Amino acid sequence: METADSTSSSLLSRVKARDPQAWQRLAELYGPLVYQWCRRCEVAPEDAADLVQDVFDTVAGHVGEFAYRRPGDSFRAWVRTVTLNRVRDHFRRLRHQVEAKGGTDAQRRLLEIPDRASLPAHDGPFQDALWQRVLDAVRAEFEDRTWQAFWQVVIDGRAPADVAADLGMTLGAVYKAKARILRRVRVELEGLDAAE
């Protein structure tokens, strides 16, 4: 049985051969560990989830280069190095970004937006139309399964692993769907702020 402390050479060989079940197992083993490493580096929870996906993208692109070259080399240490590099990149990007208007409170309100049909009657028609316009514009750009993964994790608050199982997706694909759609929603909202 593989653990994140000792990845078997057979699992690693299957990962290098792009075996989907091996990738799923790798994500199950290392996803929580990568997330924990990010959080220990003081990455915000929502950014840590995005960084997990970035780490797995990098691992996917370079896993063929990994080899045990010296005694004591481990796949876990290699993944940790990749993670720390992605964390450094993340903090470099943050230094160059201007904080978005509204900050964390605006993002929290965005994530609490319910389905249009369940909006309370006292919400004004302008506010209802604005939110629906943003969500409709963004939704049209993504496949239904990608949108469902985002919606179930972000809006419904379901665990990514449960959503992945229900939708027949990998855990990494669910994280990627969430990150891609959140980035797109942020761009759309920034465009609305600039137009005001």
Description:
This protein has helices at residues 9-16, 20-40, 45-62, 75-96, 103-111, 125-139, 144-155, 160-167, 171-195. The protein is mainly α. The chain folds into two domains: 9-96, Orthogonal Bundle (Rna Polymerase Sigma Factor, Chain: A), CATH 1.10.1740.10; 103-195, Winged helix-like DNA-binding domain superfamily/Winged helix DNA-binding domain (Arc Repressor Mutant, subunit A). Helix 6 packs across helix 9. The chain is globular and about 55 Å long.
Strand-helix topology:
Elements: H1 9-16, H2 20-40, H3 45-62, H4 75-96, H5 103-111, H6 125-139, H7 144-155, H8 160-167, H9 171-195
Q: Specify the overall morphology.
A: globular
CA gyration radius, whole angstroms: 19 Å
The total count of strands amounts to 0
Write the CATH fold name of the largest domain: Arc Repressor Mutant, subunit A
End-to-end separation in angstroms reads 57 Å
Rounded mean pLDDT is 75
Oligomer: single chain
**Secondary-structure arrangement, i.e. CATH architecture of the largest domain:** Orthogonal Bundle
- Main beta sheet, described? none
Encode the helix/strand succession as letters.
Answer: HHHHHHHHH
Quick overview:
The protein is globular and about 55 Å long. Helix content is 70%, strand content 0%. It contains 9 helices and no strands.
